[in-house]
């Protein structure tokens, strides 16, 4: 008996159902999308009807739809959340991505549960616990390296391990960032992060010396694991997740196609692996993630700590190198572009760095070649006055962060996806029998009674039969083989052959739908397994009494309330991160080891971040190599909550 192939899943984001459908078409095995409420992207919600429409499309290819219900919930939100889960299950959703353990105590339908990245899965013990309480898939912390992933895989055998491979990086361990709530009242755990990490900060040392001025020291480059897919598969990852539920259609098409092609190259060369959905995608363009918004790329900690993971100069998208300025005119400027850049177009977006190191940009109204015989020299008229284009001068290096030709290419249909089928035509005593079988082993048969007539031109009739049966355009299928099991190439009217083919395709689609099985819900281990710790602080994000009771059932003795409960009124760790500002600024004591005259003089003393009236302290825990960003809650945020009659879990009386 052949060994069972291991399924590998490409998981794409969707801001809405149309983007989700495009993700499936471009090769996603699964899509994650927000429902009407309780998703960790407050402005990326969708109706249940839209979820149902997306599920219907995805299920044709055995692709799956995961709905994010991954905020922490107040007590008064548990019942509305429970009702929503039933609606999503009835709409066809395959799994829920959740953070709040209070949901596990609700009367839920038999829908599969996935542990959100917000549950902060960094250790084998935490991952094993989540598997044992009923999670079938879990998103590991982005900060893990290959060795740590392998250690988790050794402890987690039933649940699928999921890992982010592309997109924006949260600087904090997911679920461990409270700066947004402390400064604005907008909770990241409630889907409304204000992205304080992307702001510029001035960094000073214990003596008040300025180390960095107005730098985005908490802003990271974007994640790109293109070179590490094989290593991640070998380490135990089964689901490869693209970040971006706020991203547009072009981003999802492009990045999904990019990773689909990379994964297919691996899967096609390894018989022990298989795609986790049906069909193959054909792309009508060459994917290039550099074309989308990005802050440059890093593979973060997968291969160990790296020197340069920060996007300190700007959180914006500088774009792809274009060329340089030749001369500046009163209402235009001339540029020399590189041969790799390609033509310029009206509407392209250009960027450059000014003398203060700030990124500037301008759209181009009109782009014309200076000389028809020279495709590298252009005259550009911007949509802003030249006087306002700061430090744009001769020899200024230019970048392009929007390419209109690229955008137009992805605005058009840019991929197709089809399931391979084999067709066999037999003759019967009363006519013809068409059998159609797909790559998943489903088969359907349709018989057409008719009087068979010999063909005047046998070769032409045979070709007409093959072409007519293979004509599957507009369906989910593509003919990989057409077998004519006939005593001779009979003449069959085109209308009869087309009807036979259409009926067979409809029968196969019905057979596939009838045999599709919903993902199973994992059964929790009984008696309840103990949680790895007996004490939980505000970092566990317990915000309702059902979550509190869940942890108590699993042996936790002390259960703190979530930061949003406003019990941590003094200074607290508002962010815990693997990113170290000292390391990035070459001030880490470990970096000084072995450096003559320096070793022992550099200590991991606190640093201070300042932005406007906000002051944060950086404290360094060198044993686990982590940084804590420490601060306190603004008074206006405290007043804001005090004015709202909300019901949630408090470990101390209000």
Number of domains: 4
Number of beta strands: 32
Give the structural class: alpha/beta
The CATH superfamily name of the largest domain is Aldolase class I
- Average pLDDT metric: 95
Strand content: 25-35%
Tell me which CATH architecture of the largest domain applies here: Alpha-Beta Barrel
Report the CATH topology name of the largest domain: TIM Barrel
Low-confidence stretches: none
Helix content: 10-25%
> What does the radius of gyration come to?
29 Å
Based on Cα principal axes, name the global outline: globular
Q: What is the CA-CA span between the terminal residues?
A: 63 Å
Largest sheet: 8 strands, parallel, barrel
Task: Summarize the topology.
Layout: E1 6-14, H1 17-25, E2 30-34, H2 48-59, E3 64-69, H3 78-90, E4 95-98, E5 112-115, H4 124-132, E6 137-139, H5 146-155, E7 160-167, H6 179-184, E8 201-204, E9 210-215, E10 222-224, H7 229-235, E11 237-242, H8 249-268, E12 273-275, E13 280-283, E14 297-298, E15 320-328, E16 333-337, E17 349-353, E18 359-371, E19 374-382, E20 397-402, H9 404-411, E21 415-427, E22 431-438, E23 443-449, E24 453-454, H10 458-470, E25 477-485, E26 490-491, H11 494-515, E27 535-536, H12 545-553, E28 558-559, E29 572-577, H13 581-584, H14 589-592, E30 607-611, E31 614-621, E32 626-631, H15 635-642
Parallel strand pairs: 1-2, 1-11, 1-12, 2-3, 3-4, 4-5, 5-6, 6-7, 7-11, 10-14, 21-25, 27-28
Antiparallel strand pairs: 7-10, 8-9, 8-30, 13-21, 15-16, 15-20, 16-19, 17-18, 17-20, 18-19, 21-22, 22-23, 24-26, 29-32, 30-31, 31-32
Helix pairs in contact: 1-2, 1-8, 4-5, 5-7, 10-11
